[in-house]
Amino acid sequence: MQIRTATTALYDDFKTKMQKIADVQMASAVLGWDQETYLPEKGAGFRGQQITTLSSIAHELATETALGDLLRELRQRDDLDAIAHRNVDLAFEDYEKHLKYPAPFVSAMSQATNACYHAWIKARKANDYQLFAPELASMVSLKKQEADLLGYTTHPYNALLNEYEKGATVNMLDTIFGEVKTAMTDLLRQISARPQVSKALLHKTYPKKLQWQFGMHLLQAMGFDLLAGRQDISEHPFTTSFNPKDVRVTTRVDEQDFGNMTWSCIHEGGHALYEQGLPTSQYGLPCGEAASLGIHESQSRLWENNIGRSKDFWHFHYPTLQALFPENLQGHSLTEFYHAINQVQPSLIRTEADELTYHSHIMIRYEIEKALIDGSLTVKDLSATWNQYYQQFLGVSVPSDTQGVLQDIHWSHGSFGYFPTYSLGSFYAAQFMAAAKRQLPGLDAQIHQGNYTRLLQWLRQEIHEHGRFYTSNELCKKVTGETLAFKYFLSYAQEKYREIYR
Amino acid sequence: MQIRTATTALYDDFKTKMQKIADVQMASAVLGWDQETYLPEKGAGFRGQQITTLSSIAHELATETALGDLLRELRQRDDLDAIAHRNVDLAFEDYEKHLKYPAPFVSAMSQATNACYHAWIKARKANDYQLFAPELASMVSLKKQEADLLGYTTHPYNALLNEYEKGATVNMLDTIFGEVKTAMTDLLRQISARPQVSKALLHKTYPKKLQWQFGMHLLQAMGFDLLAGRQDISEHPFTTSFNPKDVRVTTRVDEQDFGNMTWSCIHEGGHALYEQGLPTSQYGLPCGEAASLGIHESQSRLWENNIGRSKDFWHFHYPTLQALFPENLQGHSLTEFYHAINQVQPSLIRTEADELTYHSHIMIRYEIEKALIDGSLTVKDLSATWNQYYQQFLGVSVPSDTQGVLQDIHWSHGSFGYFPTYSLGSFYAAQFMAAAKRQLPGLDAQIHQGNYTRLLQWLRQEIHEHGRFYTSNELCKKVTGETLAFKYFLSYAQEKYREIYR
């Protein structure tokens, strides 16, 4: 007679294995953070090798037969609680997905990513897309293979989308971006017909040290726990988390552009609050992870735009800012400042776009990715197509590859299917914010007073604490009563910009 | 017929395995560095767990049967070059040593270290040795077991000494420390009979920022490559290296004690120059590691004392220092400053001791460790014995456990056998420096001019580049023509202090 191992013992075993994998992945993340912040220049080569080794160890552990066996056994148990059950299901899903990648493919992808990234750097320096094209072509070919390995219905791009936003499809995005395009064209047309606002105010000289001080002040005001996280300087702002008790954001400071630091700081702060709000008890387990990239982005965008570009927010913080930079801001009213930070103006660079035209940048990338993956666009024609889309969607002429098709790092990393989550994040954010306003009486007044405690508590309870327990779809429905709908972003934008541009 | 694998293929396989282990260990070292410099307070728990996981993965990899088989096969090959041969021999020696530790012992030691460290922290805070004693007793008992596991001849302490300084024995140390004691007693007696020098100069207020700037200046002057390393602030200064292209030192700055930052900076800089000088081609292999702790310490002490407390060194750097701190140093001569930084004065705290009485602190710890390990001293009597030795060796009364037996972290970490390498390092340093002066004509004049290029080149060629190829004994003989001899330190000290104290 075989003795049946108790479910709790099996589950503990599962947790131990998963936490070991997480420890290795998180160690790799620490090395990654260090690489972007403090690594001495000559250390880059060995560092790359160290990160590769940790990734391969994590991959070995995540695809161990013993883990698969354990998961299959656990899936047959009916005495798991809801969270444990969900952890097992999601872990099994991840396990099976990891197995879909044969070792030669993983290795080819790793090499291609490295080559592609360096080609991108080189091409940017030379301002010449053609230096990037051959490596990008190999990357696109590998991404098509990846779509086949993962499997899909309807469109191969769905397989890649699914990696970043489970359940997102070309159908869904075509529909939502269709609505976006119609509504935005109309809104942008109205705005362009009105007297324009100026953002010259943001481009005076703002000394670095004071900007840094103000950024730290904002992070703390938002509720970012500096005993469980920190901020440093890096070339490109990012958030990384090694567990909810150690969440790190970075920013950059441009003395001639006050907005650069401020909204990157609030944006990454929003990501960081999500990470600090994930349940520590679920460390290493799916329910200890973010629901999806779209939901992650909803948290950063909610803080960056819905809160951080609102008049209520600056009603409270503008006096502090004026006191820090009296020479730049004395005599400039809150309204003037509020208009400056919300200027709408079609432009070339995605990361510097306002919150309306931003989505045109995303739609261009979405159309291009879809077409590259289904083969209707070839890599060699990409630069021309890019420039044509920028004319068509935004009415701007692209003067150079560096300010055009070479501006984003994503494709050089093989991140196809990632861009749409940026727009989804904004739309989720507007929908969540509308729900918060319905559910939290007096929220506007609290924000007006610089008090985000209740809002953060609500985000924690409604979103952060659940980790991956709900899919983004389920989560959206649970929190707002319906699945993702563009109308919330639209009415938020209409109301806000009609007031600004009258 | 079985086909014999080519030696180069076997050796490449060996290198790959060793570098994988190194990658994991180095990743763990990055996490350790981060823990001491930038880790947010609440992240400590998860960080400990992540480091433990990496250590256990490294241990698994280092004790894999396949590695042992490979090493045994390689040891039979006669077509390895000298360095490859040595790498294989040393790696096999390390492999067999790793196997001597049974898993339950490793786990017990890991738990005991954790408990012992926290008891030490607690006891220090409460200034009460008895809070530390029970955990220390468990630690000592485990160290005795470890000596048995490792095996030894003559004295169990030899097994532990061997971990830090291969070949060092109680016999050797009893002899050398016997000489030290006789010579030092005499020298200290002479010094105490002369008019004393004052170090009040060093205890004015030296602003942090300027001290930091001066420390960075010294590191660069020594030849520390800041593109392959960096300096940060931590509570206790240390050096850590992730490969020769990424070597990190830390320091601390006390505004009321200029010496604290300066000589910790030069000391760690000496360690760091050694690490930056190890051969990158040997990364992950024994010949890419330091020869021993004693040799490592020789490099830090050589820079800290033989160079960094010499009149020639300050002849060049004192004017810069005066310019940085005019209010503190204008009107104070180089001689006055030189005397201040070389004041000899028996004291309570090892890390603040001058370079002569320092060795009495080490001898006390050596006598105590020997006796704890052979059982002639019990842990409960340790505090009393400590105080008695301080009276006997240094003529000082210990007013409290915190300033006495609880001052060093080492025993709480289970580092028994480590302290003697500090003294050995000083003696090696004096012997190396004497050889350098013989072999490099004009060295004093170069130091007088702030030029350490030739000296560093010599240290690189004679010591750094060889890694663990030679044992410390062999290395000492190769570089200086004889094995370690105390007489070099003695004549260095006699000459220096007779001049200072006349």
Automatic annotation (TrEMBL), chains A, B:
Molecular functions per Gene Ontology: metal ion binding; metallocarboxypeptidase activity
Cross-referenced InterPro entries: Peptidase_M32_Taq
Cofactor binding, per record: Binds 1 zinc ion per subunit.
Domain of life: Bacteria
EC numbers for this chain: 3.4.17.19
Catalytic activity: Release of a C-terminal amino acid with broad specificity, except for -Pro
Catalytic site: E268 (proton donor/acceptor)
Keywords: Carboxypeptidase, Hydrolase, Metal-binding, Metalloprotease, Protease, Zinc
Residues in coiled coil: none
Any Pfam family matching the protein: Peptidase_M32
Co-factor requirement: Zn(2+)
Gene3D superfamilies in alphabetical order: 1.10.1370.30
GO-annotated biological processes: proteolysis
Keyword Transmembrane: no
PANTHER family recorded: CARBOXYPEPTIDASE 1, METAL-DEPENDENT CARBOXYPEPTIDASE
The family this protein is said to belong to: Belongs to the peptidase M32 family.
Role this protein plays: Broad specificity carboxypetidase that releases amino acids sequentially from the C-terminus, including neutral, aromatic, polar and basic residues.
Name of the protein this chain belongs to: Metal-dependent carboxypeptidase
